[in-house]
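Here is one such protein, fold included:

. . .
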Amino acid sequence: MANTTIRTVIFGAIAGAVAFLIFHQGGFWALTQAGLLKASTWSMAATKPFAVPVVISYIFWTALWGIAAALIVPRLPGALGGVLGWILFAAIVPMLANWFIALPLKGAPVGGGFAMPGVVLAPLVYGFWGFGMWLIMRLLHQMSGQPTRA
């Protein structure tokens, strides 16, 4: 049991961080290139108070969200225990935490002011990140010879 939990935590952190770099940032980059949003992706600008690059800070936080998802989503009933749960988890839980906790702590308005089209597109990108976490978790489980839940 302990080895399974440790593996889940490690795989969740990897899935969250790698999916952030590919799916989350890739989604925001694509929407920026399409002219739908103005997002700063893969930013090396320093964050406060420790002057850590933004992308490194996000990798840390998305690894933690990946751990949370890996521990929670597979325990959800029915279809929510699979890809749908990963997508909904990422589109709702971290998005709400960002809107109602992180942004106000940074001095920004709640929800970033809930400006269109970001209020619609951002949760879609977060859901895309959830899909990426699910894919990477499946890949990690397959590579380790562990069974996966759809």
